[in-house]
Design goal:
Layout (H helix, E strand, L loop, with lengths): L1 E3 L11 E8 L3 E4 L5 E13 L2 E9 L4 E6 L6 H16 L5 E3 L2 H4 L12 H17 L13 H11 L3
Antiparallel strand pairs: 1-6, 2-4, 2-7, 3-4, 4-5, 5-6
Length: 161
């Protein structure tokens, strides 16, 4: 069985990836932060310092949820069995997988520490929203008052252009 391990924030870049798969799309799934959101998934089989690991990672726009097996992996047979359980766990959430290379996988946020803590990001967002409300050049001049969520979405969408 796979269980959420909320103490894991990123995976060790020194881990040797034995096999990895990435989802071919996003699914609306439950998040550890409450509610549901669209996310993609990765299943990763690796080793580090002689120990084997299997992770199922749900990647959301704001965070990653790391799931680990509650089974002890002692040898290659255990690893194969737990790998199949991990794939089944993610597929039961509606994900379809394709192989992903180690080099591609290690450029994802599951191996990259955020440069900012979540509270710093939220603080920056709040100050940006205040600044936008004062000097609005991206919002049409109207009487409509935008919620923080609407402003955040507009800023996020416009930042790609």
């Amino acid at each position: 069985m796979f269980v959420l391990n909320d103490s894991i924030k990123v995976l060790d870049k020194n881990m040797k990836i034995l096999s990895a798969k990435g989802s071919m799309g996003s699914q609306n799934v439950s998040s550890s932060r409450g509610g549901s959101d669209y996310g993609s998934a990765y299943t990763i089989q690796g080793s580090l310092d002689g120990e084997f690991f299997v992770y199922v990672v749900l990647h959301f726009s704001t965070h990653n949820d790391f799931y680990v097996s509650d089974d002890l992996i002692l040898d290659q047979d255990d690893l194969s069995r737990v790998w199949e359980e991990g794939l089944e766990f993610a597929e039961d959430m509606g994900f379809y997988f394709d192989s992903i290379s180690e080099s591609e996988l290690k450029t994802t946020t599951i191996f990259q520490e955020s440069l900012l803590e979540e509270d710093e990001i939220l603080s920056l967002l709040d100050s940006t929203i205040e600044n936008v409300e004062e000097k609005s050049t991206i919002f049409p001049k109207s009487e409509k008052k935008y919620t923080k969520e609407e402003i955040y979405e507009i800023i996020k969408l416009r930042s790609f252009y």
